[in-house]
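[Help] Beginner question about ligand-bound structures

Sorry if this is basic. My supervisor gave me a protein sequence and a SMILES string for coenzyme A and asked me to "get the holo structure". I don't really know what that means in practice or what format the answer should be in. Inputs are pasted below exactly as I got them.
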Amino acid sequence: MAQTKSVALRKPHLDDGGDIWQLIKSTKVLDLNSAYYYLILCKYFKNTCVVAEDDHQIVGFVSAFIHPENSKVLFVWQVAVDQSQRGKGLASSLLEEIVSREECASIQFIETTISPSNEASKALFKKFADKLGIKMEETETISQEAFPSDNHESEQTYQIGPFH
Ligand SMILES: CC(C)(COP(=O)(O)OP(=O)(O)OC[C@H]1O[C@@H](n2cnc3c(N)ncnc32)[C@H](O)[C@@H]1OP(=O)(O)O)[C@@H](O)C(=O)NCCC(=O)NCCS
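Answer (accepted):
No worries, everyone starts somewhere. Holo just means with the ligand present. The predicted complex, written as structure tokens, is below.
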């Protein structure tokens, strides 16, 4: 289990699903999926997801999965850090924790999507790429029209890599 100051980084357990759902809800900017969705991530995708735990509270979470057709690609889905822990490098540590795992040894690229207004997310991934000395490039865009509701922004896909 990795440590960042007093915060422990670890794979999620099934029991964490509800707390993760609360954390995502509290961000007010991330799409809130059903609680069942987070339970399934904890059960079947634990090797590519990570939680940060501080004094028995979930204060950070990243969901990710290995591309089903390309084991070199890790798709990073949601990144959330509790307000109380922001600005301390926790989100960066969560990303580093996943890619350093044995189960992720095949990973050469991270892909993620970022909505144009999410400056924090862009800064996070740019910093991650810069720290590793690797490129971050824009690839395809998921247009606003692809979403059934008209209040969802477009999503820009970014590819980060190759890892050395
Ligand atoms: C985005 C988020 C995960 C960052 O968490 P964090 O632990 O504070 O991030 P870090 O401390 O690791 O910061 C990483 C880099 O991003 C930058 N950053 C973080 N928040 C930022 C913000 N609000 N605006 C601009 N840059 C920001 C930091 O400055 C840092 O770069 P630096 O070291 O060069 O200054 C957190 O703010 C959050 O949960 N936001 C709500 C959910 C969200 O938008 N998630 C991302 C999309 S999936």
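A couple of things worth pointing out: The first strand starts at residue 2 and ends at 4. DSSP finds four helices and eight strands in the chain. Feel free to follow up in the thread.
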